[in-house]
Amino acid sequence: xxxxxxxxxxxxxxxxxxxxxxxxxxxxxxxxxxxxxxxxxxxxxxxxxxxxxxxxxxxxxxxxxxxxxxxxxxxxxxxxxxxxxxxxxxxxxxxxxxxxxxxxxxxxxxxxxxxxxxxxxxxxxxxxxxxxxxxxxxxxxxxxxxxxxxxxxxxxxxxxxxxxxxxxxxxxxxxxxxxxxxxxxxxxxxxxxxxxxxxxxxxxxxxxxxxxxxxxxxxxxxxxxxxxxxxxxxxxxxxxxxxxx
Length: 245
Fold this sequence. Notes:
With 245 residues, the chain is α+β, with helices and mostly antiparallel strands. Helices cover 42% and strands 27% of the residues. It has two domains: 2-57, no CATH class; 85-245, Pdz3 Domain, CATH 2.30.42. α1 (2-18) packs antiparallel against α2 (23-57) and α3 packs across α5 (127-135).
C-alpha cells in the first residue's frame, strides 16, 4: 500500500511539472500526504494499545471476552434470522441457514458471500464488526447485498439463436450499476439456476463485466465452449428478524 502511495505521488509530481498551477494536482498531493499521515498515526495508536493490553493482561489478553461477545452475537443472529456466518478469504460467507427462516425466505443460501450490510462493505470489517451490524441495529429489517455464482445451462442450439432469453432463459440490460438481469423466462434455464430480475451480473465465466458493452457480454456467452455459463451475481436482500426462531 505504501508503494502505491509513492507511485501515485510520483505521478502527481510529474503532472505538477507539466502544469504547476493545477489546483487539482495540488489537492491530490495534499490528500495523499494526509492519508499516509493518518494511516501511520492509526498504526502507532494500535501498537500502543497492543502494548498496553500486554502490560495489563499479560498472557491473558482480552480476546477471551471478545470471543464471548462474538459467540453471543452469533447465537442471536441464528435465533433471529436463521443465519450462521464465518470469514473466508477476508469475506463473510454464509455457513448455514435454517430452512423456512427469515434469511432463507429472503433468498439467501449457503455459500453466499455477504458483500454489504446496511450499505457498509464487509470486506474491511472483522467478524465481530459484521455481527454487530447484523444483530445490534434496532430495525426489524436487515438490508444487505449477497454475491453468488449461478451455473446457468446454455441452450445447445445457441448457433441458431439470436436472443439471449432463448440462450440462457434471461435477458440483460445495462443500468447505472452495471450489467443487470432485466427478465427471467419462466421455467427456463435462468430460472432453474436461481436468477432473478434485478440481479447485478458482475462477471461472466470469471471475466469482469464492469465497462463491458452489452453486445460483448452476449457474445461471450454465445462463444462459450461449455454447457453452462457461470454468472457471478449480486443481489439486494431484506431479512425480517423473527424472534420466535
